[in-house]
């Protein structure tokens, strides 16, 4: 990751949906449908933001993050970086920018669920100060696996 890289962090638009759907399918065994992403566009209670790198022509979509907002709490629903770009620090950039928006929108806490064996994601969340607050037994399917519930208090 170049420190000087110009990033764009902007709400999902119709023109991003093909790429986001492709990344979602390559990342999750129970992927969100195209309609779920399309429905989230313009939804008052849902945010999906894309991280892009400025290109010569079109900007390159690196990944995306989504969260639902309920009574001042944000619940992260999607986090993914395109497989070919993982391990270069873009997950850090994605999370940093999302937390900044979540904070700016005056939310107090951020929650998420993660597969208990998903080391890269748990490593990322630890780094950003998320703490494990519970376990949902056998929450995930394909394969069956526990979910860790994690929480971060904004500003801590
Ligand atoms: C989780 C994910 C978004 C991380 O994105 P990334 O761009 O590869 O992450 P980065 O390179 O920015 O690394 C950020 C931190 O994540 C952790 N991490 C990333 N890859 C890791 C790995 N292979 N093993 C352990 N920790 C890892 C580290 O803490 C890392 O911090 P560091 O750079 O100081 O070491 C990415 O792996 C992904 O899209 N996974 C598939 C989808 C997914 O599982 N999403 C989470 C659903 S809850």
Could you explain the architecture of this structure?
The protein is α+β, with helices and mostly antiparallel strands and 156 residues long. It has one domain (7-153): 3-Layer(aba) Sandwich (Aminopeptidase), CATH 3.40.630. It has helices spanning 17-27, 34-40, 90-104, 119-127; strands spanning 7-11, 46-53, 60-70, 73-81, 109-115, 131-140, 145-153. A 7-stranded mixed β-sheet has the order 1-2-3-4-5-7-6, sandwiched between helices. A hairpin with a 2-residue loop joins strand 3 and strand 4 (73-81). The longest helix is centred in the middle third of the chain and has 15 residues, at 90-104. Bound molecules: coenzyme A (COA). Coenzyme A (COA) is lined by residues 27, 79-81, 86-92, 114, 118-121, 123-124, 127.
Short description:
This protein has 156 residues and is an alpha+beta fold.
* CATH topology (level 3) name: Aminopeptidase
Rg computed from alpha carbons, rounded to a whole number of angstroms: 15 Å
Number of helices: 4
- Mean pLDDT across the residues is 95
Structural class: alpha+beta
Q: Which range does the strand content fall in?
A: 35-45%
Low-confidence spans? none
Q: What is the CATH-assigned architecture? A: 3-Layer(aba) Sandwich
CATH superfamily: Gcn5-related N-acetyltransferase (GNAT)
């Amino acid at each position: 990751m170049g420190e000087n890289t110009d990033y764009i962090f902007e709400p999902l638009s119709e023109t991003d949906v093909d790429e986001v759907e492709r990344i979602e399918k390559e990342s999750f065994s129970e992927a969100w449908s195209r309609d779920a992403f399309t429905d989230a566009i313009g939804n008052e209670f849902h945010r999906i933001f894309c991280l892009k790198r400025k290109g010569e022509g079109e900007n390159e979509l690196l990944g995306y993050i989504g969260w639902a907002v309920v009574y001042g709490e944000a619940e992260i629903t999607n986090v993914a970086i395109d497989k070919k770009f993982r391990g270069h620090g873009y997950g850090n950039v994605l999370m940093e920018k999302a937390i900044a928006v979540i904070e700016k929108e005056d939310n107090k806490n951020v929650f998420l669920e993660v597969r208990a064996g998903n080391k890269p994601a748990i490593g990322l969340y630890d780094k950003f100060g998320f703490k494990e607050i519970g376990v949902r037994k056998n929450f995930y399917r394909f394969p069956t696996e526990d979910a860790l519930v994690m929480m971060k208090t904004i500003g801590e």
